[in-house]
Amino acid sequence: MINIPKGTKDALPSEIHKWHFIEAAARRTSEKYGFKEIRTPVFEHTELFARGVGDTTDVVTKEMYTFLDKGGRSVTLRPEGTAGVARAFIENGLQGGVMPFKTYYLISAFRYERPQAGRLREFHQFGAELYGAEGPAADAEAIAFAYRFLREIGVTAAVRLHINSIGCPACRAKYQEALREYFRPNLADMCEDCRSRFDKNPMRMIDCKEERCKKYTANAPRMLDFLCDDCRAHFEGVKSLLTAAGIRYDVDPSIVRGLDYYSRTVFEFTSDALGAQSTVLGGGRYDTLLSQLGAKPTPAVGFAAGLERLIMLLDTLNLAPSLQRTDCYLLGMDDASREKAFLLAEELRSEGLICETDLVERSVKAQFKYADKLGARFVVVLGEEELKEGLAEVKDMEHSTSRRVRFGALAQYIKQGRKL
What we know:
Elements: H1 16-32, E1 36-37, E2 43-45, H2 46-52, H3 58-63, E3 65-68, E4 74-77, H4 82-91, E5 101-110, E6 122-131, H5 136-152, E7 160-165, H6 169-183, H7 192-200, H8 203-206, H9 211-217, H10 229-244, E8 250-251, E9 263-270, E10 279-285, H11 289-292, E11 300-306, H12 307-316, E12 328-332, H13 335-350, E13 355-357, H14 364-374, E14 378-382, H15 384-389, E15 391-396, E16 401-406, H16 410-418
Parallel strand pairs: 1-5, 7-8, 12-13, 12-14
Antiparallel strand pairs: 2-4, 3-4, 5-6, 6-11, 7-9, 9-10, 10-11, 14-15, 15-16
Helix pairs in contact: 1-5, 5-10
């Protein structure tokens, strides 16, 4: 027996409708905001993520699936979507096109980390990216887009929006120095990760989950107190637009996000219903990413949501959609009626109905049992008499009624019956 690799999960036919529900909501919302889909390779040159995501992040230092291909080149399975989209934006000359450039993606991504609820080694994301707009309205639109998507799947009552500003490189440098001064006296008592981040990127220390570090990070200086005038005005503009749009939020100084390319606005939608894995969607602004990849500076903002966590949230809140039921099962009593059932099923499918019929020569009793397992609303019974008269006995399994219907009127009868 060959088992599934650790940290991966099958999406079975009995559950796939939940995925389709979220993906359809993602596509609908993207269209409303003018975002078009992009598809990038599942693996990229390793340097893309080292330069884009940041060589001080846990993603790059601990979690990437990196290997040498047969040509000796280092390639990496994508750990997130933004860097690949940025590479495609640059490489395909999209910087010279109409701005702002808006795109979205539905992808699988890979991180080598300890598997747990809502966090797998292969996971799936819905993400959106907006390039070429530097004002606070772009940030507010990205957040409103994310909010509307969550509303489309019905979970806004169970989530809370948290926002913060982590400033630009200029004001962030002053903040990082203040953090070093604050943490230095207690650095020896903090975890190994925090000690390694102290020199490279002390902002990563604020997000540490170790209990022994939290007592120090809780009272650390706040980035909001170090914002330059431009970053402060930008953040105030974002807040003003969100308030005007009726989108409630909490300013949360602890949000720094886990990737180095973020600047200024960062945000997360969280839910208490998921316990420790509370973040269901996160994003922010990343104005320096494209220049880090060798292109001309281009402002950008975006977000990503984990599909596994959204499915967990829907299940926890009992909001997951039901599996679409079979409209009708066509039951044949003998060889001739089975053949007619097969042909009628094709006709009904062409009318948009979900139909099944016998493929394994079950008995009549076994076919009724099978139709019941399928949850078929109607069972269309065909036998020798029905074939002679051109009439089918149609049993409404929900209302326990039965009626004889002409073959040519079956589609209309079943469609009308579904509404009752």
